[in-house]
Amino acid sequence: MSESLPIVFAAYPLLLSGAALIWLICLGGQDKLTWAVLVLACGSIMAFAFLAGSWAFTSYFLRYVFLGLFAVVSMFLYFRTGCGNSHGRPRGSGITVLRAAIFLLFSVLNVLAIASHYPSGKTLDLDFPLGSGTYYVLQGGASAVTNPFHTLSGDKKAVDIVKLNRFGNRADGIAPRALGGYEIYGETVHSPCRGRIDRVRDGRPDNPPGHPDTERSEGNYIVLKCAEADVFMAHLKRGSIKVAPGEVVTAGQPLAEIGNSGNSLEPHLHISGTENGREIGLRFNGRTLSINSVIRRGEVVPN
User: Fold this and answer.
1) Within 13 Å and on the Cβ side, how many CA atoms surround 41?
2) What does the DSSP assignment read for 49-83?
3) What is the DSSP letter of 112?
4) Which residues contact 60 (CB under 8 A, 6 or more apart)?
5) pLDDT, tens digit only, all 303 positions of the chain
6) Are residues 303 and 292 in contact, defined by beta-carbon separation less than 8 angstroms?
7) Region of residue 153 (phi > 0: left; psi between -120 and 50: alpha; otherwise: beta)
């Protein structure tokens, strides 16, 4: 089952976007009112796929391709429709209610996706812990819509980070079987602050992709004390941890490498923070990360 999850993650934003486009193309050319209602309903679906879909399983750039296609199709249909009710057909109230319900549902989901960038409660500002490439948030943000698995596990403010290749994918395909097929595997993790190493665990094996170790979920990890907060970095590569408990580290100092140990489907960096046992949000160079956030040379790219 877990081996098929990347295919599911890759498919759902494509299916949502494709369904919205097909629905609009098939029914949006009847008249101006139908066009307007459908653009709102289909646009809300398209917006949700754009905001909350896991695009890095195919290509991050596809989210803009679908958005552009939607805009082109919408304008094309607008100019080809008439002003009246096409063919004199009455508009069923049930269909209108359905379209309105879809618009309202996805509008709420879109608001939650946008709100994920603005967490409530205390946050900790950190340096971005990875190098000079292009990185992508696979899961994160202060909302179950953008951070579902962490929310279910009680770690609702954690962030999962991968690295993008030049095609906007986080790997050589949807689900490579080799760890080396994932861009982030073996990348150096740097200290996100000046602090003290509180705890480490090493020695757990790196799992083959799609085969998580559910019994030892954290895998290899480091807990770094940053001021009053504990920063937890997990799923590190076996044998790569370069620090020991009690050691004082500086911001930017190499700590370990990205692996696939513990309850992890594929190589990524899991990072979260707590203070006095309570979870806190994380900000990197002043920005809160959510799904589809892109970080280049340590800075969040507006998207």
Assistant:
1) 22
2) HHHHS-GGGT-TTHHHHHHHHHHHHHHHHHHH-BS
3) H
4) 136, 164, 168, 169, 292, 294
5) 677 899 999 999 999 999 999 999 988 667 788 888 899 999 999 999 999 999 999 999 999 999 999 999 999 999 887 655 544 444 556 787 888 999 999 999 999 999 999 988 899 999 999 998 999 999 999 899 999 988 877 788 999 999 999 999 999 999 999 999 999 999 999 999 999 999 999 999 999 999 999 999 999 999 999 999 999 999 999 999 999 999 999 999 999 999 999 999 999 999 999 999 899 999 999 999 999 999 998 888 987
6) yes
7) alpha
Domains, in order of start, for the chain: 2-115 (no CATH), 123-301 (2.70.70.10)
How far is CA 179 from each of CA 83, 184, 261, 285, rounded to the nearest angstrom? 57, 9, 11, 30
Q: 3-state class of 273 per DSSP?
A: strand
Q: What is the CA radius of gyration of the chain?
A: 22
CA–CA dist 83, 110 (Å, integer): 31
The tokens 């480490």 sit on which residue? 200
